[in-house]
Amino acid sequence: MRHPMTIPLSAMFGLLLLAGSASGQIDWEERIKQAFSERAAKNHSFRIEYERDYFVTKLSQPEMMDGGGNKWMPHEDTTFHFSESIIWEGEDFMKSFRGPMFHATLGEYFDNEMIISEYQGYNVIFRAKLFDTNTPYAGINDGYKPEVKRTNYWMTQYDLLPIFFYSGRLDLINYDLDDYHLLPGISFFNDQECRVLEKLKTTNIPNRSGSVYRVWLASDLDFLPTRFLIDHNQNHLIDTSISYRKDQNNEWTISDWAQTNSGTNENGEMVLRTSSNITVSKSESGALLGGEDFHVEMPPLTFVDESNWHSGKEVVRKYILMPDGSERIVTNEEFSRISSHAELFNTPTGMAGFPKPQQKRRSMYVIIAILSASLLAIVIRRRLGRAEA
User: I want to staple 137 with a disulfide (CB 3.0 to 4.6 A). Which of 130, 198, 339, 367 is the partner?
Assistant: First the structure.
């Protein structure tokens, strides 16, 4: 696929055909809200699996390194491949993805798997390889309930907007149709008649215009989204187009979407930074899901960092899931001594990070050798001094 390196700003916004009256707009707004409400009810539970080809231009991504500072990656224009899936039931969800991720210690990309699950107050973030040790890691938060509902970072990424606007489940990403207003008239995108919603987000930063969010909704597809355009301060553009197909029930289902992410360079030109082509392999509305579907299977030797809040305060436990199913408790003292989780696998609780007996013997021999050499040097110097006298 050819990726244009420069994109004129004026080409990013389509020409709106102005028509209609204020009363017509109110009618369209109600129809749009009704369509979204019906889709949300239908997709109270949902499953989707998809493949992503992610193109990244040379030195366009500032990746954070251990110890602070960024490393600009990748070294050349690169296309990465990811396999991803999302399920949800009400407000419970699980997202998983496998593909290249940045290693903050080595400063390179490596293949990894990550799973994020939130089910009835039980939150798990699992990595098949922790960045500094390449061993499995799981962070667990059990029973924590924030006073204010937080927007989940893993679900609100711009490249996932097609899923939530298609399903009507804007509540999962803390979006609200009431934050948008309907632009007058109609617009055409990919030969489809659309109504366009717009949201403006102002900023207090000097010389910045703020952000504009626009969504094209196809009138003949029951107001399914066909395009998103996000303009941040006229120097960062995200443009997404969505396609649909008929499923076995002759209903429209999302099939694929493409996204470009562009920004201005030092010459003020809009240039491509990344692009994604995403193909849906499976989607299921009204999926029958239970607790087992949100369970994260952790392999033996997974390092678990668990916070339990059921007592009203945080109780922290660290442990290794051993091959026999037992938990090898990790103390804070030994955790501060080790350089790798692997040091915990074959030592009793509290003993990791200490020198091994063989190492102690070697150290003792070295000390004895140094002392012997020092004493010998003192004796030789004394004898030489007497000889000179």
Answer: 130
- Model confidence pLDDT, tens digit, residues 2-52: 443 433 433 444 444 444 444 444 589 999 999 999 999 999 999 999 999
Give pLDDT, residue 25.
Answer: 42
96 — phi, psi (to 5°)?
A: -135, 150
Tokens of 254: 């999302």
Largest CA distance in the chain: 118
What is the spatial distance between Cα 252 and Cα 265, in angstroms, rounded to a whole number?
39
In order of 70, 326, 333, 374, 378, the CA distances from 386 in angstroms are 64, 69, 54, 19, 13
Residue 203's φ and ψ, nearest 5 degrees, are -140, 150
Residue reference for tokens 């699996």: 49
Which pLDDT tens digit goes with each residue over 66-113?
888 999 999 999 999 999 999 999 989 999 999 999 988 889 999 999
pLDDT of residue 206: 73
Burial of 277 (0-12, 13-18, 19+ CB in 10 A): middle
HEC letters along 20-80 = CCHHHHHHHHHHHHHHHHHHHHHCCEEEEEEEEEEEECCCCEEEECCCCCEEEECCCCEEE
Amino acid at 26: I
CA dist 137 → 86, 119, 231, 366 (Å): 20, 19, 37, 38
Chain centroid, CA 312 distance in Å = 29
Rg over CA atoms, the chain: 29
- Looking at residue 14, the DSSP 8-state letter turns out to be P
Q: Residue 162 corresponds to which tokens in the numbers above?
A: 């097609």
Return the domain boundaries, the chain. 9-293, 355-389
| pTM score, whole prediction | 0.82
| Domain 9-293 grouped into CATH 2.50.20 | yes
| The length of the chain, given as a count of residues | 389
Give me the helices (H) in the chain, please.
22-42, 161-167, 332-337, 357-388
In one-letter notation, the amino acid at residue 123 is: N
Phi-psi sector, 234: left (phi>0), alpha (psi -120 to 50), beta: left
**How does strand 187-189 pair with strand 78-89?**
unpaired
